[in-house]
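Progress narrative, work stream C.
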Amino acid sequence: MCWRKQEAQKRMRVKKLPMILAPHLKRFKYMEQLHRYTKLSHQVVFALELSLFSTSSDVVQMDRMYDLVAEVVHYGSGPNPRHCITIVKSRGFGLWFDDDIVEKRDAQVIEELYGLASDVSKNLESGYILFYQSRE
């Protein structure tokens, strides 16, 4: 089985759940035939609320609820040149941070940046780093 590609899974065990959780969605894939990375523009629906539990047997707190509070969004069709913006939820609306510009937006803007389900050729913006805050 050496030197052959095969299906694999990666798993980590968590002993202590964090106050801020920042999962990173891998939106790029290396294409061997092109010898470069290409953007994965498919729709990734992420939860606005997240319930996590510890996978360690010697843990103090077994589970924790999280709320999505921010998202980093990549604009563009490939990994370079890149431009990222950040959206932060704040008291019922969203704050859109784009370099030195900050705009107030509707809070639903986070959900709009899941990625497109149908016409992937038009999907140039998609969230790839999510920030969840613990309710505790």
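Work stream C, second folded protein:
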Amino acid sequence: MLGFRSILLAATVLLVGSALAAPSPSPHRDPVTGERAHLSPADTFGNGIHPAYSHNFGSHVAAHGLGGPHSLHEIPGAHELVRAHNTAAREHGRTAAEHRSAHRAHLAVAQAHTRNGNHAAAAAHLEEAHFHRKQAALHTSERQRHRTNASSIHGHNSGSLHTARLSSSRARLGHTQASLSHTHAKIAHAHLDAAHSHHLAAQKFRSEGDHEMARYHSGQARVHRTSAARLAPGSLN
């Protein structure tokens, strides 16, 4: 359902940042905003499922405890929030794995450039490898945060949450839904642009006989096409 799209938005934006400008590696930039695409430890995404969905339910339970006449099973949306946190945790896990894979790929390319004496290109790929390693660590941390939040909500199934706070948080989440479709369309378009750039880079390297780099860029093109398809209407239900 549309509410889940907000869960996946930030993780998906990270995938856009993996695009490389052909033919040499360049800093990862978000094609939508022009900013370097990464997840900062101070990013507000760490405070909830989505930047606009700022209430941290784990902190809420810790600060306000349990109470009230309604059990968790009777509060509309409580189980949806558990599923939402679990979905976000899975997405962060997948993104962390993709960053670890990119880290290994850049290290391999850097080693190849070093063997060929191209130390400038090797240094550029080592910088990209370092970027992906940090991102993998951050996404792993966010995965654990969402798993903890899901447990905090689900673990109190014999008690209750404050319905007013829950309703307020659900309202804030609902308020963001109107713009999500447009945002997803922009990100999907950026993924398709990145896929096209990688496709052109693959053709260029293939024509030069560098089949290792051609395979790398072909693989990145497939990743971006898959990411664009995942943002198509109805694909995130």
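Residues 2-230 form one domain. No further action is required on this item.
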